[in-house]
Structure formats: C-alpha cells, structure tokens
Fold this sequence. Notes:
Blueprint: E1 2-4, E2 14-16, E3 22-24, H1 28-47, H2 53-75, H3 82-85, H4 89-100, H5 112-135, H6 144-175, H7 179-185, E4 187-189
Amino acid sequence: MRKIEPHSSSADVVLAPKGASTIAVWDPVVRIFHWTIVTACVLNLFVLEEGETAHRFVGYVVAVMLALRFLWGFVGTRHARFTDFFPTPSRILPYLRDLMRGREPRYVGHNPAGGAMMLLLMLLLASVCLTGWMMGLDAFWGEEWLEEVHGALANSILVLALLHAAAAIIESWRHRENLVLSMVTGRKRA
C-alpha cells in the first residue's frame, strides 16, 4: 500500500493499493442520495406544479432520502460518515485560510467547506420538507406566511446548489480531477 495526498491530519491519510489509478470514495448510497436530490430539486423547482400531487410526492421522496442519508452518516462507509467531514472550527478555519491563499489541500472525501455546504443543504432540504408537509395540515391550510417561508427556503436551496456546483467545477479544475464524474462512478484518482 502507498500513501496518497494526505491533508491536514495524519489520521486522514488514505491508502491505495500499489499501482491503483483510482480509489473508491463515494458508495452507492451517497451517490443515489445525491442524484435523487438533484433530480427532485429540478423537478420541484422547474417542472412540477407547486402543491400538486406529483410535487408533494417528490417532496416525500426527498424527506425519505434525507432520513436515510442522515442514518448513513453514522453507519455508512468512511467518507459518508459525518465524522469524516463535519466542519469543526479546527478543520474549516485552516482550510479557508489555505483556500484564500490558493493553496488548499486536496481531500479525497468532502473538504471542510464542502462538508459545511452539504450539511447546510441537508438542513434547508429538511426545512422545505417540513414546511411543505405543514402546508397540507388543516392547522396551516392557506397560511400565506408558511407558503412564503417554503418558497424562500426552496430558492435558498437553488442558490446554494448553484454555488455548490460552481465550487465543484472550480475544485475539479484546481485539483485536476472530475468531481462530477466521481459522484457518478464513486471513484477518484489515487
């Protein structure tokens, strides 16, 4: 086994078989979650009519996927676990300092900024699911403020998703690897 590009902590060194050109990073649960959420957001933001049955069904799919991903964050594979990427101050501050200097290290899993973005997007998705579900309850039926909160949260997801995609493209260029493809294949260069 040989070491490949460690980042800040020696505990984070990833070992790859000698001569391997790629390593497995994103397991099927992570990849299915990611692309299901992407598809659901595109459908509910741009294709399906708000409040219709299909829109609500897609929202429930998102809620189920979030619950599964949350669980997988504790019992899943190494890079799926929250402990691998939870953005503590001791992780994110040095990363942001290095990023501002143009010397950020390559991470095999999520970098600290990517981990923060993922958690924020998951929180917003959960909030959209909750407010969408609440709008179907008799107690909140027709409440304009709730519809406005739901819409604002959905628009926030759109903005952050675009920022996330732009960051993935920039990081792909800076580290010379296709991060979008790695979320399809589950593999990154060793």
